[in-house]
Design a protein that fits this description.
By secondary structure, the chain is mainly α. It has two domains: 112 residues, no CATH class; 134 residues, no CATH class. 69% of the residues lie in helices and 9% in strands. The protein has a three-stranded antiparallel β-sheet, covered by helices on one side. Helix 1 packs antiparallel against helix 2, helix 6 runs antiparallel to helix 7 and helix 7 packs antiparallel against helix 8. The model has no long low-confidence stretch (mean pLDDT 90).
Length: 255
């Protein structure tokens, strides 16, 4: 029984690590439950998982001996990393099809965790290009696109720097929105380009909380009401922080 107990504890720790990694990478509640259940069943366990916005609680039951073990793990602040989400999903199927053991799973988790991120400059340039592209999509010309590019670049840079200095996440969004709006709002104040309002409106689109709002809707549809409401509230607060930043620029420029 002691051997089973040790294995159960190791698996519970691994599954909670997987769940926390999925949660912090932007996975929906349903995906987390399905992935954890798939891996647990492949290793001969039944699992019950409670998912909240800040913590995971897991109970494992060994199918043969009915030995059970419960454990709790807090999750880190949420972000978006679809590379990790898709990698864990593929890993869970390989556990089923190839019979991976716990050390092999832990090895794959560490590999996924250590995957390199895109260089910071590449992220800044590509997100800024996306902002300029949105401006063009709404009818902006070269001048408005250039303003949107610079405003998005500066806003994202400020958000990254604020996050590095451990500011509150909503304050990071506010600082980024205010910075982008101050730059794009200057073009409205001084009439740069034919439609400077387009640059002002699209320079903050990189801050829109798409993943939290989509996950909120998905959780509500799946019946995970509490998580759906929490994620929806999180998305609304982020949207409010964006609006406050734009409002600050409008008050400063009186536009």
């Amino acid at each position: 029984m002691e051997k089973v107990s040790t294995r159960t504890k190791e698996l519970a720790s691994t599954l909670l690590e997987i769940g926390a990694l999925l949660m912090s990478s932007g996975a929906s509640t349903g995906r987390i439950r399905v992935t954890i259940s798939r891996i647990a069943e492949a290793l001969g366990y039944n699992s019950e998982l409670l998912v909240t916005h800040r913590a995971l609680m897991l109970t494992l039951v060994e199918e043969e001996s009915q030995y059970f073990f419960s454990s709790l793990k807090r999750t880190s602040p949420h972000g978006v990393n679809f590379k990790v989400v898709s990698g864990i999903s593929r890993m869970s199927w390989r556990v089923v099809e190839e019979g991976w053991d716990i050390p092999k799973i832990n090895e794959e988790i560490e590999r996924l965790r250590s995957l390199p991120h895109y260089p910071r400059l590449v992220i800044l340039l590509l997100v800024s290009l996306a902002g300029a592209s949105f401006c063009r999509l709404f009818g902006g010309e070269a001048t408005e696109m250039g303003v949107a590019f610079v405003a998005t670049f500066a806003g994202l840079f400020v958000r990254q720097e604020s996050a590095k200095r451990s500011f509150n996440g909503y304050m990071c969004v506010f600082f980024a929105s205010l910075t982008a709006s101050l730059i794009s709002g200057a073009s409205v104040k001084w009439g740069l380009g034919g439609n400077p309002e387009l640059a002002f409106a699209t320079s903050v689109l990189f801050l829109i909380p798409g993943v939290p709002l989509i996950n909120s809707f998905t959780d509500l549809i799946d019946g995970n009401i509490m998580n759906g409401l929490v994620r929806g509230a999180n998305g609304m607060i982020i949207s409010f922080a964006i609006a406050l930043g734009m409002l600050g620029a409008m008050i400063i420029y009186n536009i």
